[in-house]
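*Target chain*
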Amino acid sequence: MNRGLAAASALCVASSVMGFGGDPILWYTFDDQADPTVNLGTLGAAYDGGVLGDAGFVPFDGTFGVALDGDADWVIPGGDENALDIADGDFTLMARLSTTFVDRASIAGSGVFWKEHTGSAPGYVLNIRNSTGIARFNITDGTTSVVVSTPEPVNDGVIHEIVAVRDADVLSLYVDDCLRGRTRIPASFGSTAANPNQLIIGGRTIAAGGPTGGPNDDLEGTIGEIRVYTSAEHPPDARLGDANCDFVVDAIDLAGLLTAWGPCVGPCLFDLDLDGVVGPGDLAILLNNWG
């Protein structure tokens, strides 16, 4: 695709796709079907993405995506990796993908987005977990990890839009515009910014200098689009308290909240005030969002 046409297309898409108000710093649609793939985000052409391994471009949801075979296939942005050390402030990771992968995979690392944090290195990860197929969003300061996961698997071969958001002291994880998990970052949490590694899309890194390409590290599936924002971009149709994802907060959600009343056990979608207990505060929030 001509870079000028790609940029013009980006202006049209940015105003409508998912209704996000901010501008992504990194944005790959893969519609150019080129290596390096064009970065339509504000970091510009220096961050065009290198397509590594046997990754190729395939039709995807009416446009194109990059197909990864799970064996050392990745997309790695160009430019200075320090520009992607974004996890200390508000940020958003978005990926539109389809996978049936049954081991761990990152959209940015071990499958999706990965700015590695193994050992003492801080960073952030959005991945798909081994065997369970759930999506997981994780940030760490090198000592403490904060994790939020989806209650359901996303490795069903259906195209999903997965959005991970850090908004002040809260991590949120959305699937197809529906909030599927939230957790609070503790006040003692430190800096995540001193990360020596590249951002890996579709693979995992555990040391400075590149991805590992080890077993269960790489995503097997197709990614149609990825975006990275340095702002908190929540899907506008998502409703706090809408646990059954019908985009209405109603009697069904109220019944679910009352059934979950008490201390949280496992995924706790009705702990709306993030105090570890489903109680009066959560009921008040749900009723305030009614409709």
Remarks:
- The chain has three helices and 17 strands.
- The CA atoms of residues 92 and 165 lie 4 Å apart.
- The two ends are 44 Å apart (CA to CA).
- The helical segments are 3-14, 251-259, 280-288.
